[in-house]
Design brief:
eight-stranded mixed beta sheet, homodimer, 8 strands, alpha/beta
Chain lengths: 264, 264
């Protein structure tokens, strides 16, 4: 038997960014009720609330006090400032945030029912993601809270993990390397190709294979290219080619050094 | 009608590394005849020659002089030194190299039938690649040579392009960013996760989605994470977490700056 009754369980979203949008849509598609969406701007709040068939507000004071679950998905700095306002007057509900780098202890002194619901994925507004494959990392002090979060998370995803704040911090940092920095490597390739009128699309088979390899080999085993071979000949040609791009040239040099060092 | 008769067309591979191995296997599977494999070491030569049902040699002087096509796939520095020896006494054959960063002009003065056959992919010995999806970039001075190379390349791949040495240099450099440097970002994530006993596998859904996005959005549009938002709060937490890894910390800082700069 489910630990909660979806029909009677009310969820408020605090924040209406990319993560909140994707999470809200996934929750709704699984039969959960989002009753209200808060966002600082009317436009964002309305846009998401319409999708979710929920009420909206742009004032934290107007956030309903009777909800069962408050999912807070704001920028880290905004969230850290607003914790007192977010929790004020709401003694019953469970509060979770979705941030990789904020410890669960942020709730201490404000609510006994604080936790974390961290879906590790890169969310862009223009692209719908399949939530089933997104790992969700949970944390809560209270056993029942953790059971509720586990139930909700496993309705959305097949990969639910319970981890500590310390581990989550490292996960988030690692995700920056594996996702954000990786995408920037694509952006730099795109930047260079554009200068010679070569479309970025020619890189896609190579990019796909690099990803496929990560499923089969450890990154260390999969490493190829001039840096791991310490092929000064090729490296110098590349640095020459980047003579008019000093910032990219320096990055090339430093990443190459790092590859060589890590490979030893 | 095919421009050459596969049954009567003989190919020699000079080099037996990852690229030569993958290319040789793909050629054989399409009915081409690899008659001989040269490698500096007996072991590599024999290993590949056995797969291809070819003769072997470890001496460039013993390379057959009557072959139709010589595919040279050596390290750039070895190749540059060996061009005279490779071409010596062979007046009939077509010579191509497979290097991204070496111009076609390397053949000048040694043969009138020099060209380039550059399959842009990351080859690891332990992983078989599907050649059909690998873009192959060709170059040749002689029209008939270019027709022959186009025929062979299109037997292997659906993506055959004719480009200049200058464009190929930029392609190769861009591939280092999109593949080698990307893989290193995975390696750094793996390095950090290991310290906290978190398996690298948890990153795979995120890595897959980052790649999928590259098919749909430009890298600039797809960029997410603390650096593009210039979220000092999160960036500083990450730098703190990397306090005992000064080299990775510096890389984190520089790549973040580059993301912010490129995003403006």
């Amino acid at each position: 038997m489910a630990i909660i009754d979806k029909d009677k369980y009310s969820i408020v979203l605090i924040g209406a960014g990319n993560l909140a949008t994707n999470l809200g849509k996934a929750l709704k598609s699984k039969g959960f009720h989002i009753v209200q969406v808060y966002s600082r701007t009317r436009e964002s709040a309305s846009k998401l609330a319409t999708l979710l068939n929920a009420d909206t507000t742009t004032s934290l004071e107007e956030v309903r006090e009777d909800a069962d679950l408050y999912i807070v998905s704001l920028s880290d700095s905004a969230f850290e400032k607003l914790v007192p306002e977010i929790t004020k007057g709401k003694n019953k509900g469970l509060f979770v945030h979705t941030a990789g780098s904020i410890p669960m202890s942020i709730w201490e002194g404000y609510t006994d029912h604080g936790g974390v619901f961290y879906p590790m994925q890169t969310f862009s507004r223009s692209r719908e993601v399949n939530f089933t494959r997104i790992p969700v990392f949970l944390e809560a002090n209270d056993d029942r809270d953790l059971q509720i979060l586990s139930y909700i998370a496993s309705e959305l995803s097949s990969k639910v993990h319970i981890i500590s704040s310390e581990q989550r911090k490292v996960l988030h940092l690692s995700a920056v390397f594996a996702c954000n920095f990786t995408n920037h490597m694509y952006a730099l390739a795109d930047h260079l190709l554009r200068k010679y009128d070569i479309p970025f699309d020619v890189m896609l088979p190579l990019i796909d294979e690099t990803t496929q390899k990560a499923h089969q080999l450890s990154p260390k085993e999969a490493q190829t290219g001039p840096a791991i071979r310490y092929d000064k000949n090729v490296i110098n040609k590349h640095l020459e080619l980047l003579a008019d791009e000093p910032a990219i040239q320096e990055l090339y040099e430093r990443i190459s050094q790092s590859i060589y060092k890590e490979g030893k």
